[in-house]
Each structure stands twice: as C-alpha cells, then as structure tokens.
C-alpha cells in the first residue's frame, strides 16, 4: 500500500510539472501578396517551430498553385492561364469546381473567370491610371464561367483569352487546408491569419480568441470572440489607389466592372475559412436583402458597414461580440 501511495504521489508531482502551454508567433511576408500571422500555444519553442514549418510549407505550396503572376515548377493557375498542358493539382481542380458553384450560388457576383478584367485593373493600378472603358467591356466578353471545363481531373479553358483569378477564394481555401493539416499534426490551440482571413482552433489558456475587426476609417470597430470559427473581412480600405482624388479599391463588381460601392466592409463568421472568404467577397457586391438571404442559407453570421458608417448585423453576430 505504501508503494502504491508513493507511485500515485509521484504521478501527481510529474503531472503538476507538465509544461504550461506558452504563446508563440511567426510572421510570413512572401505568401499570397499579403502578411500572414501564425500564433499558437505550445509546450515548447521546438514544438512551435515544428508546427510553424508545417504551416509555412503548406501555405507556400498552395500559394505556388494559385499565384497567377508567376509560374513555378508546380503546374498551377499561371500555367493554366498560359494555355500550358500539365498535371492539374487536386487543389486547383477542387477550387475551380468550388468557384463554378459559387458563381451559381451568388448569381454571378463571384466569378473566378474574371481574370482578364482583374488583370487590366491590376496593370492600371501599377501605373496609377484608370482602365479604358472600351477595353474593360471587351475583356468582359472573355469571362464566361461556362467556358471552364472540368474533365478527368483536369481544368480546361475553352476561351483562349480567358484567365482565371482565385483572389476572392484562394486565401480562405488555403488557410482551411493548412489548418486541417496543423490539426492532424498535433496542434491544439492556434490562430492563423492570412491577410485578414482568420481561422482559429481550440482556445487560449485564458479563453476564446479575440479578433479585432477594423473600422474602414481606422481603429477597431468591434471585437469578436471565437474558438474554432473563422472570421473573414472584405473591405474597400485594404487595397486601393487614387486617381484625381478618387479612391479605387480592388473588389470589382462583376456587373459594373468597377469597384463595388455598396459597402465599406463585410465581415463573415463561419466554421469554414474557404466558405467565409467566398461569402465576404460576394456579399460585398450584393444588396443587403440578397446578401442576408445568402448568409442565412449557409448559417453564416455577418456584419455589414455601409459608406455612411451604418452597421447591419445578422441576428447571431452580436453573440460573438
């Protein structure tokens, strides 16, 4: 009996000495043309470094697949747009399939086939000028989502002047895939922020993760507390340039071919980062009633901020604040 008591006492002592998880963080600046932050609670620096290496490696792999501005050794979106043949990565096929589905669900407000129009805006932003309206309309003629064909695990573009752009969905999709890999690799508590696409898993020792939502005019508009949910914001203040005193942001309305003007920002909370990313972009271009109906279809909670500063929320959004 005395030996049993001694063994139990030793077990209690060793349990009490177990390392308390500490907060560690890393920042990556060369992925998806944005800043990525990875924060995790781990028992040691070595454990965090292992997870950070997994996180960066997976995000880099996916970045090379979806980057349309530079080709890598991996066949990806840039190769596809250039008309090259190659083995299509499963992720490129899957996200293309999802993009076609999102086009249908949003009434065309989200269109991964808008690449020719978006590339014109990109080039003009680099030069500090506005696109020629006739050129915009001409390029819009090569954005028919029906010209994307999925066959035998490959993606084929029937219009040689069409190009795909995954900017509205790639960050959220990649964050979700990376989070799933981290969880399978033993991560117990982390937050991954890929340029405003935040995905959380588990809780901090002190409780839920607190995510600040920026005000379009600066500062923090509100804070939400989440554990396992994703928080994604699309806004007109994140990427923009100015011509003759007028700001032009990067979220293009598929109907007007110009920056959407209905909202200053839209924040979506769901349990899937890819879904939240797609929804935030689509809702940014949709009238409130249409957007709310779409959000309810997915069980998403949403915060809309209008140009005059008015905020609208779905019924459950305030539960997170």
Write the layout of secondary structure elements.
Blueprint: H1 2-16, E1 22-31, E2 34-42, H2 45-66, H3 77-81, H4 90-105, H5 115-127, H6 133-140, E3 148-151, E4 154-157, H7 170-184, E5 190-194, E6 197-201, E7 209-214, E8 220-226, E9 230-235, E10 240-243, E11 246-249, E12 265-270, H8 273-284, H9 288-298, E13 301-305, E14 311-313
Antiparallel strand pairs: 1-2, 2-5, 3-4, 5-6, 6-9, 7-8, 9-12, 10-11, 12-13, 13-14
Helix pairs in contact: 2-7, 7-8, 8-9
Strand segment tally: 14
Mean pLDDT: 92
Distance between the termini: 54 Å
Strand order of the largest sheet: 1-2-5-6-9-12-13-14
* CATH architectural group of the largest domain: Roll
CATH superfamily of the largest domain: ApbE-like domains
- Give the CATH class of the largest domain: Alpha Beta
Radius of gyration: 22 Å
> Would you identify the regions where 5 or more consecutive residues have pLDDT less than 50?
1-17
Globally, the shape reads globular
- Total count of helical runs of at least 4 residues: 9
Largest sheet properties: 8 strands, antiparallel
- The CATH topology of the largest domain turns out to be T-fold
Helix content: 25-40%
- Estimated structural class: alpha+beta
In terms of DSSP E residues, the strand content is 15-25%
Please tell me the total number of domains. 2
